[in-house]
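Long-time lurker, finally posting.

We've been working with Ribosome-binding factor A (Algoriphagus limi) and I want a structural starting point before designing mutants. I don't trust myself to interpret raw outputs, so I'm hoping someone here can both generate the structure tokens and explain anything notable. Sequence follows.
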Amino acid sequence: MESKRQQKHAKLLQKELGEIFQKEAKHLVGKAMITVTRVFVSPDLSVAKVYLSFLLADSQAIYELIQEHKKEIRHYLAKRIGKSVRIIPELAFFPDDSAAYAQHMDQVISNLDIPPATEEDEEEDN
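Top reply, 14 upvotes:
Generated this for you. Predicted structure of Ribosome-binding factor A:
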């Protein structure tokens, strides 16, 4: 269970990292749209797990590029929040596959062959 302090810090990081990917790091990601879906912060606020979702690009290539430029992204973050936090957390980026998983589950559910209810089943429900 995250403390209020961790949640507040995570929300700040999520907002600022989203803006960094839209503005400062545009030269890294090009036309790709990157969404910061979730951020989890360690209890001592020194490490942040950042989950990213990618649109309009090869997600694996963009993810690797972000991993290579992790220090640069952390530097942009330090410029933005350096005066309001004591420690700029180390960033650990992870791809967020929840949208792809949801799409897969939608497809599985739509492909299910469910026979229609018989009259006896309908009478039992009432």
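Before you design anything, note these points.
The chain has one domain: 4-96.
Residues 4-96 form a domain with the GMP Synthetase; Chain A, domain 3 fold (CATH 3.30.300.20).
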